[in-house]
Design a protein that fits this description.
Layout (H helix, E strand, L loop, with lengths): L4 H8 L4 H8 L5 H12 L4 H4 L6 H15 L5
Helix pairs in contact: 1-3, 3-5
């Protein structure tokens, strides 16, 4: 199912329109966005210890979200 702007906001909370457009352009599903968000905000490191990394759309979303977190706030 195609993800909507509201889906992005429900998963990530308030984010700027540029990030929403970038996420929607991936063609990922809401479930993939939820998984990427969980990868970046999980308290445990079990997945990394097992050398399992996200793949496909989830990996693409992780890269987008990580880049956004590293950018200073836009004015």
């Amino acid at each position: 199912m195609t993800m909507t702007r509201e889906d992005v906001l429900n998963v990530l909370g308030p984010v700027d329109d540029h990030l929403i457009v970038e996420i929607l352009a991936t063609g990922a599903s809401r479930e993939e966005l939820e998984e990427a968000f969980a990868w970046l905000h999980a308290d445990d490191v079990l997945g990394r210890q097992l050398r399992r990394q996200p793949t496909g759309k989830v990996a693409e979303l992780c890269e987008i979200l990580e880049a956004e977190e590293e950018e200073p706030d836009r004015i």
